[in-house]
Design brief:
By secondary structure, the chain is of the alpha/beta class. The protein contains 24 helices and 22 strands. The strands form four sheets. The chain has a seven-stranded mixed sheet. The protein has a seven-stranded parallel sheet with strand order 12-13-11-14-15-10-16, with helices on both faces. The chain has a six-stranded parallel sheet with strand order 17-22-21-18-20-19, with helices on both faces. Helix 9 crosses helix 23. The longest helix has 26 residues. The protein is globular and about 100 Å long. Bound molecules: adenosine-5'-diphosphate (ADP) and magnesium ion (MG).
Length: about 700
């Protein structure tokens, strides 16, 4: 299909432009400079400040190809103030010939004929005096005027030069539709220029535009562009949100009796936050559109019971609920806990994992598909739940624990499961979806990247928790840590010992786990030391976890398989070896495995010197903070939003210009504006999306 307004360029160039997301004239218009170079005045060689890029105009004195330390083109040039050496490590024969031709004119003739070099780059002191490495240069006539505006430097890719981009972008500015789509008065109130003014100014800033404001992205023109960009993201996500509300969903209405019966059997009362979130969820499940809600709550805030209550509502209404967890250990633990809660109420709970024996698996699948006696009402499992062969009889609610560990595709798969009815035909009733995460997403980020979801927050921990003490201990003091483990076990408690993470190799990781287990078994030969890692068979894993939970193992040596969800309240010491290799949210999750009972808990972060700067920063943050939201905020700051939201990305337009840490207010403004446009002026909303995301949406579809 031909794309309206497609960029005209030779095919090879077109293909490269496509890599930059540049397909239409509109894309060129919003392909904005990374930075600017000032070529509006010439600096004499002798007075160039060191380390700052300058424009120099000089004639050629000497051209030579040298071979030490490696083959390079060396050109000596001079202006009236002094001499300068240029070095080119990559160069063409044509380049050498062009420069030799200038040399042959001699400096005086160059003056007369007016053919000189204009160079742009940083001057640094070198072996032979002042030098520039790989300057950008051009042969110019003496009377050639200097540019009037700052020179934009665009984001680019191999094979697309700055000059080529400029040659395409400037005409696009005059041919593309730059008409204003926002309310002019509103823009004025916000001290924002019109869209046309903003893009003209940013592509070709006239003299007098404050350079710092341009470079730092604080100029009102940048503000306008960032707003437009965030607005496009909001429009796209909010439109998806509205569309979902037009779809039907299972009506999960009931008396709430089942949930009340469950609550009556619990040894604790819900916290205020749990009650509030439970109400939010219960209210939405009774609506005729599919819920898509993210439940955020710090490690240990009690998300599982909230999910169980939601499952009760679905089951009471005659539907099934599916509960998916990212690891087998966690899935099994959930299965055991949920079964202990729900089976006494007469609910059929089953579980499904990829590691089950075939016969058992098939029996379970038959119960999930319904019809058979003992049909499943709550199905707990790993991503085995989304496999082809699993068919749900009447799926009404999907719960995804630790959602950040799943890819978008996997979450979509599970949702699609519900859209099939018994006879395999598609019905258009997607199940309700509850996603849970203990990796709290800072508010602005949630408002931005998760604008198509509703978010509930558990902002209160159950009472009686004692804060966890965190200790940073150098690896050289390992003996003290061993003594601490002995002490903890001596007083009847248990400990975790987490093995070093080895990202590059699962095999090495397994080996370190075996080694650590062997070493600790020797050092603590009077204690019962268990080992759990990802390569164990699932029944071995389950048996070890059960023994640890029952207090039959004193120290559990583990890989990160215990990272999420594992809940053994008697464990009150967590040792993490090579803590410097772990990410912030991982450390926070691991630390959250202790502090679950009434005992004082300690987390020891063993680290090995020397620490890289980011590792040091991470350890400092985890040492100083125990609030998951606060840690997430730091994490966002360290890693940037792209990394932070990770696999959520696909389908969500990434922000190129707006900076969520700085431009918080723009996100709020854009959210309001998106709602207003979608309601009152859907055609303008559509045009805005087209302008900003048109090609990107095409690319996503491709
Ligand atoms: P997470 O939010 O990390 O998934 P869990 O649901 O595993 O937390 O809950 C952590 C522990 O707190 C569990 O042992 C759970 O039974 C317990 N718990 C949950 N809610 C409460 C409450 N309101 N009062 C006391 N304990 C609670
Ligand atoms: Mg949990």
């Amino acid at each position: 299909m031909a794309i309206a307004d497609e960029i005209r360029a030779p095919q090879a160039l077109q293909a490269r432009l496509r890599k930059l997301g540049l397909i239409r004239g509109d894309d060129l218009v919003v392909h904005l400079p990374l930075r600017y170079e000032d070529e509006t005045h010439v600096t004499p060689i002798a007075s160039a400040p060191a380390g700052e890029p300058v424009l120099v105009e000089a004639s050629v004195l000497d051209v030579s190809v040298q071979f030490r330390p490696r083959r390079q083109l060396v050109v000596r040039v001079a202006d009236a103030s002094g001499e300068l050496v240029l070095r080119f490590l990559n160069f063409y024969g044509s380049q050498t010939r062009q420069l030799e031709a200038l040399r042959d004119q001699g400096p005086d003739q160059a003056q007369l004929s007016g053919r000189r070099l204009r160079l742009f780059g940083e001057i640094r002191p070198g072996f032979l005096g002042a030098e520039m490495v790989h300057p950008r240069y051009r042969v110019v006539a003496a009377d050639e005027p200097l540019p009037q505006s700052l020179t934009p430097v665009y984001p680019t890719t191999a094979g697309v030069s700055q000059a080529a981009l400029r040659k395409l972008i400037l005409p696009a500015l005059s041919s593309a539709d730059l008409s204003e789509l926002l309310d002019a008065r509103w823009c004025q109130q916000q001290a924002m220029p019109t869209f046309a003014e903003a893009v003209h100014l940013l592509h070709a800033p006239l003299p007098g535009v404050p350079e710092a404001a341009l470079q730092m992205h604080t100029h009102p023109a940048w503000r306008r562009i960032k707003f437009d960009e965030v607005l496009a993201q909001q429009l796209s996500l909010r439109r998806a949100y509205r569309a979902r509300r037009l779809k039907g969903a299972p009506l999960l209405k009931g008396s709430g009796q089942l949930a009340r019966r469950l609550l009556a059997t619990l040894p604790f009362r819900l916290t205020g936050a749990q009650r509030r979130v439970h109400d939010e969820i219960a209210g939405e499940l009774a609506q005729p559109y599919p819920m898509q809600r993210l439940l955020q709550g710090d490690v240990g805030s009690g998300k599982t019971i909230v999910a169980a209550l939601a499952a009760c509502q679905a089951i009471e209404a005659g539907y099934q609920a599916a509960f998916m967890a990212p690891t087998e250990i966690l899935a099994e633990q959930h299965y055991l806990k949920l079964r202990s809660w729900l089976e006494p109420l007469g609910i059929e709970v089953v579980w499904l994992t990829g590691r089950q024996k075939k016969a058992l698996r098939q029996a379970m699948q038959a119960r999930v598909a319904g019809g058979a006696p003992g049909s499943a009402q709550l199905i707990v499992g790993t991503h085995a739940l989304i496999q082809e062969s699993v068919d749900f009889a009447r799926l009404g609610l999907v719960i995804i624990d630790e959602q950040h560990r799943f890819g978008v595709a996997q979450r979509l798969e599970l949702r699609k499961k519900g859209e099939k009815s018994e006879n395999g035909e598609k019905n258009s009733m997607p199940p309700h979806q509850l996603m849970m995460s203990a990796t709290p997403i800072p508010r602005t980020l949630a408002m931005s990247y998760y604008a198509d979801l509703d978010v509930s927050v558990l902002d209160e921990l159950p009472p009686g928790r004692r804060p966890i003490k965190t200790k940073l201990v150098s690896d050289s003091r390992r003996d003290e840590v061993i003594a601490r483990v002995r002490g903890v076990v001596g007083s009847g408690r248990q400990a975790y010992w987490v093995c070093p993470l080895i990202e590059e190799s699962e095999k090495l990781q397994l080996q370190t786990a075996l080694d650590t287990h062997a070493a600790l078994s020797e050092e603590l030969d009077d204690l019962r030391i268990g080992l759990v890692h990802g390569r164990l068979k699932s029944d071995e894993k389950a048996a070890t976890m059960a023994a640890f939970a029952a207090g039959e193992i004193d120290v559990l040596v583990a890989t990160t398989v215990i990272e999420v969800g594992v809940d053994v309240p008697n464990a009150c010491l967590m040792v993490i070896e090579h803590a410097e290799r772990f990410g912030l949210s991982q450390l926070h999750q691991l630390r959250g495995r202790v502090g679950r009972g009434a005992h004082e808990s300690v987390c020891v972060l063993l680290y090995q010197q020397p620490l890289s700067e980011t590792a040091r920063a991470r350890l400092k943050i985890i040492f100083e903070n125990d609030d998951g939201f606060e840690i997430a905020r730091h994490d966002l700051h360290l890693r940037g939003p792209g990394e932070f939201v990770g696999s959520r990305q696909s389908g969500v337009p990434l922000l190129r210009y707006a900076d969520l840490e700085v431009d918080t207010d723009l996100v709020e403004l854009a959210r309001e504006m998106a709602e207003r446009l979608l309601r009152d002026a859907p055609d303008l909303a559509q045009r805005h999306l087209q302008r900003w995301l048109g090609s990107r949406e095409e690319l996503l579809k491709a």
